[in-house]
Amino acid sequence: MRVTYDQLSSCGDKCTVHAGFMLSYLSLRYRLRSAVLALLSAHPTYGVVVTGHSLGGALATLAAADLQELLNRGNHTPAPQPITLYSYGAPRVGNVAFAQWLTDLLSHGTHYRITHSRDPVVRLPFRFEGYAHTAGEVFYRSLQRSSRVMCADTVTKQDWRCSSGVFSVIVSDHLHYMGETTRCKGDDDDGSDHDDSLPPKTYQQLKVEYTSGRR
Question: What CATH number corresponds to the domain at position 65?
Answer without folding.
Answer: 3.40.50.1820
